[in-house]
Design goal:
Length: 307
């Protein structure tokens, strides 16, 4: 085990050996093993956005096994998906890649100003499928946020008892926030801090813009001259907001983007001290050869093999 992985594990001193072992499995798997960085393939978009929107551009993605194969061939650290997708391939691909069970989900069949998430799987499901972690989404800013925080705490407690790590997707959203506010730097940093306070081992947030959404926060950022001018500086601030960088913070790849934009974002994450990316639609909506080339380049950036 590398010194970097041992350092990261030392940040979770209150956790039992089972949790630390599963965190080590994540950090020591794939082409980024031992570096302290991660690339995770998440495929919850079929549930969240609908199958046509998610897989119509690459019909191979309708088959759950395709995503196991993509994550394995690319050398990802882990594959994350809802219950049904994991059940469809967990036996066939047992032991070949760490799995994260996405244990709550939301659909877009209704237009909701204040969305919530339904609990769609359990810790027992994660154990049955051999997962290393469970994942939950919260929407800071939604009127339902407090019940989501309570669900995360209950799941985190049960997951820890059973030696599973906890991943929290912390996505600000709701009627109290404008669309541009969802990725404002002060709001993203706040979302990362909330997830850390709820006990997340790994925190997933969106890449932040330079916008400041909250007036009280703006006054502090401007008075203290907190550097947020570049994306790398904003990544550094979000990571700092998660217990001075003592929690693993990874960043969403978001909707479809050009390869060059994704590579620029990966460089900013690397240079800002981020722990990596969770690349979903930008990989599985491409044909497999193109997806593998994309993930190969991002991994090489994180390995400092490319400038």
């Amino acid at each position: 085990m590398t010194d970097r992985v041992q350092e990261i594990l030392s940040w979770y001193g209150s956790d039992n050996p089972g949790v630390l072992t599963n965190l080590a499995r994540l950090l020591n798997h794939g082409r980024l093993a031992g570096t302290g960085r991660m690339v995770i393939l998440p495929v919850d978009q079929g549930f969240e956005h609908g199958p046509g929107r998610s897989f119509g551009s690459n019909p191979a993605g309708y088959d759950p096994r395709y995503h196991f194969e993509l994550a394995i061939e690319a050398g990802c650290n882990a594959y994350a998906a809802p219950l049904g997708f994991l059940e469809a391939g967990a036996r066939e691909f047992a032991g070949r890649i760490p799995l994260i069970l996405k244990a709550n989900n939301h659909d877009l069949l209704r237009d909701e100003a204040d969305p919530s998430q339904a609990l769609t799987a359990s810790v027992r499901d994660a154990l049955r499928l051999g997962c290393v972690a469970i994942g939950l989404t919260i929407y800071p800013g939604s009127e339902h946020r407090l019940s989501m925080y309570e669900a995360v705490r209950a799941y985190a407690q049960e997951a820890r008892r059973n030696g599973l790590a906890m991943v929290v997707w912390s996505y600000p959203r709701g009627s109290s926030l404008g669309k541009e506010d969802e990725t404002a730097i002060d709001v993203c940093a706040y979302a990362a801090h909330i997830a850390a306070q709820l006990g997340a081992h790994i925190i997933k947030v969106k890449l932040p813009s330079a916008r400041l959404a909250q007036e009280p926060a703006r006054k502090v950022y401007e008075k203290e001259r907190i550097p947020i001018g570049t994306l790398a500086e904003r990544v550094k601030h979000v990571v700092q907001s998660a217990f001075a960088g003592r929690r693993i913070v990874i960043f969403s790849g978001g909707p479809a983007e050009s390869d060059e934009n994704l590579f620029a974002e990966a460089r900013a994450i690397r240079d800002g001290g981020g722990f990596g990316s969770i690349i979903g639609r930008n990989s599985f909506q491409r044909k497999k050869p193109d997806a593998l080339r994309l993930l190969d380049t991002i991994i090489k950036i994180y390995r400092n093999e490319l400038p």
